[in-house]
Amino acid sequence: MNRPDAQWVDALDRFEAVLADQAHRVAEGAFDEFPAFTPPDGLGDLPEALSERARALLERSRAIESDAVALRGSVGRQLAVTSRFAGDARRGGNPTPRYIDRGL
Fold it and tell me: What is the C-alpha to C-alpha distance for residues 8 and 52, in angstroms, rounded to an integer?
């Protein structure tokens, strides 16, 4: 393996590690610090031998992004419902929700 190929393998290994961390954070709902991947400068062209792996990692990153967006929307809907109940309680209404839709 020549030097540029080794640099690309190292970059893809680091990208894969960041994706694993991101996937774990999405699964846990932990968006407070979401790690980003920044490729190193001067990588040059992607070697053909690594293109399939790079495509697979790109697809995985898009799936993680989609999951994160969906989860963020779900959390937003849950917060909206919760704040509605809290607002009812402040106005003298029943502070305890009678129904929580866990399907949100």
Answer: 13
Count of domains for the chain: 1
- The boundaries of the domain holding residue 52 are 3-90
**What are the strands, taking DSSP E only, across the chain?**
none
Residue 12 lies in a domain: yes
Site of tokens 């190292």: 10
**Helix (H) or strand (E) run with residue 73 in it:** helix 51-90
Any domain includes 99:
no
Residue carrying the six token digits 């893809």: 12
Tell me which residue of 85, 87, 104 sits closest to 96, measured CA to CA: 85
Query: What would the two tokens of residue 104 be?
Result: 């949100």
Considering the domain boundaries, does residue 104 fall inside one?
no
* Residue 37 near residue 18 (C-beta atoms within 8 A): yes
pTM flag (> 0.90):
no
**pLDDT digit string (tens) for 76-104?**
566 666 666 665 555 555 556 566 667 76
